Amino acid sequence: MKKPVLTIVVPCYNEEDILPYTFSELKSLMDEMVKEEIVAADSRILFVDDGSKDRTWNYIYKEMLKNEYIKGLKLSRNVGHQNALLAGLFTVKVKSDCIVTIDADLQDDINVIKDFLERYNEGYEIVYGVRKSRSSDTFFKRTTAQGFYKMMKSMGVELVYNHADFRLMSRRAVMELERFEEMNLFLRGIVPLIGFKSTSVYYDRKERLAGVTKYPIRKMLSFAFDGITSFSIKPIRFVLFIGCFSFFTSLLFALYFFLLKFFGNTELGWTSIITSIWLIGGLQLIAVGLVGEYIGKIYKEVKRRPKYIVEFDAYHSPLTLPIKESDSEGYAKDYRKILKSN
Ligand code: UDP
Ligand code: MG
């Protein structure tokens, strides 16, 4: 049987602290897999530099010169984890039979990539890596993440529980993914929509060895909020429901006040008025804000801006790399020499 060409796509944003470790781990895994004839010899590892501000690109560049498995893709600026993943996937899809995506910090167990390939050979087009437990996460991250999955489920969005972006996709699945043209791509929600034969592989997630999380609370919240509003209009329905509810209650109140006026004490309380003003005002602002959020999404979608821009694609054409000595600390110059000698 022909061995599949595998590409491992690794998004990196300011990962200089951990990259040396990541390189060596992934390289030895690749060596092993090629030796064991699990994957074809022209399999590659693509590091996507998502507009890092540290020496991430230089590290990738240097490594690329040393090892033929390693390839680099430099994006023109930081576009976020999800878009960096897409950039990687779409860049390598033609030359790869299957693609694995994994975070640069290797918190996910790279050894299960072999299991992914086994499933792929059994005919699965999408293999999800699923964490057995979240014991390595902080209590805060664990509970917020679990709350998020539950909330998404209640809104009718099917996510694979405890699956982050560690998965294998066949070329066909990636081709189909490309047809989802929306701007607000939340991969964990979209990939299950592709369908095809899918399965999960379970593993233990480790702690980050170096560097810091690139998902501080602010980014996590906006990620969750994007996830919800890109997939579900339930929040808007909810607002409508609250609106109807408060409208009908206010009718009841009106009736009550009239009855009081004609049959009882006309000294109507200031408290009830002021409370309802604040209550209704607040609800209205929330409602308008929420609707605005969706309109904002529509606005973003209709513009159809590119999700990422590639600065250097060292995967396809190494010669597009910078050739000025000042660029990338002169590595490019060495690179040209190597090319000439080959
Ligand atoms: N990442 C990226 N662009 C960003 C933020 C993060 O490419 O704007 C990458 C990051 O380098 C890492 C992965 O996305 O490889 C996941 O980030 P991180 O490990 O910090 O997230 P966590 O595991 O804490 O959720
Ligand atoms: Mg991580």
Automatic annotation (TrEMBL):
Keywords from the named record: Glycosyltransferase, Membrane, Transferase, Transmembrane, Transmembrane helix
Membrane disposition: Multi-pass membrane protein
SUPFAM superfamilies associated with the record: Nucleotide-diphospho-sugar transferases (SSF53448)
Domain Glycosyltransferase 2-like, chain residue ranges per copy: 7-176
Pfam families listed in its UniProt record: Glycos_transf_2
Subcellular localization(s) per the UniProt record: Membrane
Cross-referenced PANTHER family: PROPHAGE BACTOPRENOL GLUCOSYL TRANSFERASE HOMOLOG (PTHR48090:SF1), UNDECAPRENYL-PHOSPHATE 4-DEOXY-4-FORMAMIDO-L-ARABINOSE TRANSFERASE-RELATED (PTHR48090)
Protein's recorded name: Glycosyltransferase involved in cell wall biosynthesis
